[in-house]
Amino acid sequence: MHTKTRKGNSSKNGDEIADVILAASIQNGDDLGPIVRHAFEIDKPEVLLHQLNYVVKTKQVEIEELCKLHYEEFINAVDELRGVLVDTEELKSTLSSENICLQQVSLSLLVKLDDLLDSYSIKKNITGTLKILKICVQVLKLCSKCNMHILNAQFQPTLKILDLIEKTYLQNIPMKAIRMAIEKNIPVIKSYIEMKVSAEFNDWLVDIRSTAKEIGRLALRQAAKAQQRDDEIRTRQREAEEQSQHGIGDYIYTLDIDLIDEDSVLAFDLTPVYRAYNIHNCLGIQDRFRSYYYDNRLSQLNLDMEISLKQSFLESHQPFFAQIAGHFVIEDRIMRTARGLLSSTQVEMMWDATVAKITSILEDRFFQMDTVSNILLVKDNIILLVTTLRQFAFRVSPLINIVDNMKDRYHELVLGEYTKQLTNVLINDTYQQMVITKYSDYKLYVSAFHLQLEDMPPVFPYIAQFSSSVPEVCRIVHSFIADSIRYLSYIRHVNLYDDVKMYLDRFLVDGLNEALLMTIHSRKLGVSQAMQCTVNISFLEHVCDLFFRHAGHHCGIPSQLIERTSVEAGLNAKNVLECLQSVAFGELLSLVNSKADEFLALTDNINWTANEVPQNENDYIQEVVIYLDSLFSAAQQILPMDALYKVGGSVLQHISDSIVLGFLSDSVKRFTFNCVIGIDNDLKILESFADRKFENTGLSDLKKECSLRDCLIESRQLINLLMSNKADDFMNPVIRKRDYGILEYKKVAMICDKFKDSPDTLFGSLSKNRNNAKQNVRKKSMDVLKRRLKDLN
């Protein structure tokens, strides 16, 4: 029972839930197809119908409640609508009556309105006519102005007016005849303007080519003035530095107003170019004008660079350089001012072609020159061209390279020219000491080249230790330095000082040294002249450092830097001149000795087999002493003390050697003791002379290890040995080292073989009987020495 009740309740609850779900689906507008299909699939359509009925009942209840709610409001709305209909009928009748009244009142106004509209139409026609007339009048006025500008050759405003007409008025001109006439004449006017400006530009091309040379000359002249001002400024700076170093005082720098060039700006008329370019821009054909301008200017440049082979390059190079400079000054001005007419690339291409042509011409003509002055003139003009065009940022390094490549050739010619001058000076020199009587001459020949040995003021007449060739050589060297710097000082040459020093060194070695060598070897100089030549070379060696400083000073090197570097990096020529001085001194000694040989002639002047004991010296020795006295007198005036000592010692050494060689001569078969006594007398005269000169000339003050007498030591030791009673002591090492250290075994053996103590004559036995015991002892000692020397050999 309870089970059935629960089932009944469950079934009832399930039906209610299903009804609610179905109602919700219908309310939401969901598709009921699945629910219907499900009811038929489970075969329970009745349940579905029951549910639908339940939903219908539910809705009917709701509808009834809704109708009840809105019925009263509907009745009220219907009542209000009926009231509105009544008011509408009343309003309609009112409007109808008002319309009738309005039509009666407005009839006269409508007539007036029609008149007003006619008036407005007439006004509109008149306004349109005035507007057309105004446009025509404006266009005609512009055409009139255009004609006036054309008559006055004012083409720029003419083109502006034409452009204004074309862009603003032409399409708006209502009158066809006027519009067609204007359209027809505009191209004609433009063609006319183009023709006129082109003719004007062509005239300018002709004029500017002839004017370019003068423009170039002016530009080169300005560059030369600027370069001269720079040189003057550098000179003043060097003078200021020198004065500052010497403590002379403050040096005031001033601005020289006279040196300022008022015409520093190159003035030439480019108006036709600007005008033509501007007109072509306005015509829209600027590209064609650019091409036309560049082609014509390039053709002119090619014509300007043609130089006839028959024409002298020395005469033609200046106008040639002026033409080139003027051409590119103009092109640079046009490139910077006429914007767009000429590009920097075009100018560079034009310049590169010009540089190649100039380089070819210079390599063909400039390198063939063989005159120093001509080379300098062309070089200076090349540098002026370089300086001028460098201001306009043109690439000038190829031209500088041409000048640089020519410097060796130039210096070869300069070296040859100045070497000839040196040779002439050395050939014409008398090699006598200069005698200067005036202070002006002293400054000119001595102090100008720092040849004074002391800082004391000179006493006139001033006798210089050198001959006239020394200041002349210094002047020639200074001229060489000046010419070298003049060539090398281009564009502030970086290695100017090094190059000048190199060429100066080459000139001193290859020029001065060779000229001096030729003078030494080829010219027949006397003894005093040879002495003076040696002294001259010592002075030239001394001034080598001064040449070095002089070159550095004129190259703008500070004096302090020159002083520091001169010690470390002096001229190689100084070493060469030191060697040359040795050569000259050797030639002097050879000349002195050969002159002494003329007076010696021992084999002819000495009686080698004298029978009697001589009481005095041989006759020749007086002539030798007179020669030596004159030699020392001349050397004392010319040579320094060291050189005097060397000359005196050398000639005495040579006389000593000649005495020894006289004993060794093949023409001397034998000699006697009496001959030895005579030579001993001669040697005493020479030794006395040597001692006297050593003291009187001041050579003793030199503190030399050997005196002049010591130069005769070999002959003295030989004579002492031949006159000794103990000649065999020569073989004693101790005695030999002490008394005969200079003598050689071989020479002594040969001389002793020729020594005969007594003459071999018919009365030799009688003479022998008269010899004393001393002579016998000497003979025995000599015989022992001979025998021992033979055994030694």
TrEMBL record:
<dbReference type="GO" id="GO:0090522">
    <property type="term" value="P:vesicle tethering involved in exocytosis"/>
</dbReference>
<keyword id="KW-0813">Transport</keyword>
<dbReference type="Pfam" id="PF04091">
    <property type="entry name" value="Sec15_C"/>
</dbReference>
<protein>
    <recommendedName>
        <fullName>Exocyst complex component</fullName>
    </recommendedName>
</protein>
<dbReference type="GO" id="GO:0000145">
    <property type="term" value="C:exocyst"/>
</dbReference>
<feature type="domain" description="Exocyst complex subunit EXOC6/Sec15 C-terminal">
    <location>
        <begin position="399"/>
        <end position="754"/>
    </location>
</feature>
<dbReference type="InterPro" id="IPR042045">
    <property type="entry name" value="EXOC6/Sec15_C_dom1"/>
</dbReference>
<dbReference type="InterPro" id="IPR007225">
    <property type="entry name" value="EXOC6/Sec15"/>
</dbReference>
<feature type="domain" description="Exocyst complex component EXOC6/Sec15 N-terminal">
    <location>
        <begin position="51"/>
        <end position="219"/>
    </location>
</feature>
<dbReference type="InterPro" id="IPR042044">
    <property type="entry name" value="EXOC6PINT-1/Sec15/Tip20_C_dom2"/>
</dbReference>
<comment type="similarity">
    <text>Belongs to the SEC15 family.</text>
</comment>
<dbReference type="GO" id="GO:0006886">
    <property type="term" value="P:intracellular protein transport"/>
</dbReference>
<dbReference type="GO" id="GO:0006893">
    <property type="term" value="P:Golgi to plasma membrane transport"/>
</dbReference>
<dbReference type="InterPro" id="IPR048359">
    <property type="entry name" value="EXOC6_Sec15_N"/>
</dbReference>
<comment type="function">
    <text>Component of the exocyst complex involved in the docking of exocytic vesicles with fusion sites on the plasma membrane.</text>
</comment>
<keyword id="KW-0175">Coiled coil</keyword>
<keyword id="KW-0268">Exocytosis</keyword>
<dbReference type="GO" id="GO:0006887">
    <property type="term" value="P:exocytosis"/>
</dbReference>
<dbReference type="Pfam" id="PF20651">
    <property type="entry name" value="EXOC6_Sec15_N"/>
</dbReference>
<dbReference type="InterPro" id="IPR046361">
    <property type="entry name" value="EXOC6/Sec15_C"/>
</dbReference>
